[in-house]
Design goal:
The chain is α/β, with parallel strands linked by helices.
Length: 388
């Protein structure tokens, strides 16, 4: 009778998390633990074999000639700009609606950040706004593949070629996404511009168990410069040929990334499945605008599944979800042009119509490769109950 009762009991739904790194770890635990033990036994903690193996594997995956691992995604973006030889006062155009790290490194290097509006449907930088912002001092464009959606790289590269500008892809949220050009060419994001950066922060689609990052490029000369920059400007020990930084990916993190890279396409497919399921359940509601993808779904790897909540108090929905133990995020509540650190008299509110609207409407739902259908159904029912 005891066993019959057990069979009749409803199994409790797993706790909903914004990112479920514990369950993800359990799946790769034997390989990760063994790899870490190998590093500990060898004591090759910096630039050991695991780092070199990961570098080679990621180059093959992305289809780029050079991957230079570093300490974190912010360093990656800064080093990419240093490698291009940008000088103080040079203007760098980027999106107003993104995480602060993108503009932070521009300011740290004494460059001049130029923030422009985004497209309201994809949240990515608006090519027309880029064109409008170009001046004789403009030297580079930083498109962000926000939330995992590939930016409009055909238009951006055309603008860059026309004005002789560098393109630095911020691929921190988009690793594994594929951009399809007008001519049908398919390229992984990060391999389209002159150079790209990414982050391996634990919650990323390809994340380690601490901090990590990398720079990508197909330019041999630029890759050589960057390799020196990340290592104190050294190409030969104690010979400092360029001004550099200390930014390296450690071997323990490379072990984790090597194992996760094998599963990255699977992780991204699981995210896409979750995104499609969300859209099936709530996409028809008149007060919800679900994420838009261009072309096939491979252009979006859903680092976040971000809705626009229309004609409704978005912040009240956040509270409602939290009361029902559903985590969520508002990325991003304040545009960069209104942040104290980056405010500039040049900016006019009418130039940021999309961004100023999005900050009041966006909400990101739990998104990771371990989501199951029961969790997604509960999240969607909770949202619909609030809106109806």
């Amino acid at each position: 009778m005891f066993f019959v009762n057990l069979l009749n009991q409803k199994v409790a739904m797993r706790k909903i998390q914004m990112v479920d790194l514990q369950t993800q770890y359990e799946f790769i635990k034997p390989q990760v633990d063994a790899g870490m033990q190998e590093v500990l036994s060898s004591a090759q903690f910096i630039n050991g074999p695991a780092v070199k193996t990961f570098q080679t594997n990621l180059e093959k995956y992305l289809g780029v000639k050079h991957v230079i691992p570093c300490a974190n995604g912010t360093d990656a973006l800064q080093v990419a700009m240093m490698g291009l030889g940008l000088k103080p006062g040079d203007e760098v155009i980027t999106a107003d609606f993104t995480f602060a790290a993108t503009v932070e490194v521009i300011a740290l290097l004494g460059l001049t950040p130029v923030l422009v509006d985004v497209l309201p449907d994809t949240f990515n930088i608006d090519p027309k706004a880029i064109e409008k912002a170009i001046t004789p001092n403009t030297k580079a464009i930083v498109p962000v593949h926000l939330f995992g959606q590939a930016a409009e790289m055909d238009a951006i590269m055309e603008i860059a070629n026309k004005h002789n500008l560098y393109v630095i892809e911020d691929n921190a949220q988009g690793i594994g996404a594929t951009f399809t050009s007008k001519d049908g060419t398919k390229t992984k994001t990060g391999g389209i511009g002159h150079v790209a950066s990414t982050s391996f922060f634990p919650s990323k689609n390809l994340g380690c168990y601490g901090d990590g990052g990398a720079i990508f490029t197909n330019d041999d000369d630029l890759a050589h410069i960057i390799r020196g920059i990340v290592n104190h400007g050294m190409y030969k020990r104690y010979h400092h040929d360029v001004v550099g930084v200390n930014s390296r990916l450690d071997s323990l993190q490379a072990v984790v990334l090597n194992e996760k890279l094998k599963l990255l396409d699977y992780y991204n497919e699981r995210r896409k499945w979750a995104a499609i399921r969300y859209t099936e359940l709530i996409g028809d509601h008149p007060k919800i605008m679900t994420p838009i993808t261009s072309g096939d779904c491979n252009s979006h790897v859903f680092h976040q599944y971000t809705l626009r909540i229309l004609d409704t108090d978005r912040d009240a929905l956040v509270v409602h979800l939290q009361e029902n133990k559903i985590p969520c995020g508002v990325y991003y509540p304040i545009p960069l042009h209104l942040q104290k650190a980056y405010a500039d008299r040049r900016y006019k509110e009418e130039d940021f119509k999309a961004t100023n609207q999005l900050i009041c409407e966006v909400i990101s739902l739990p998104m990771h490769s371990e989501l199951d259908d029961e969790q997604i159904q509960f999240i969607c029912k909770t949202i619909l109950a609030f809106l109806d």
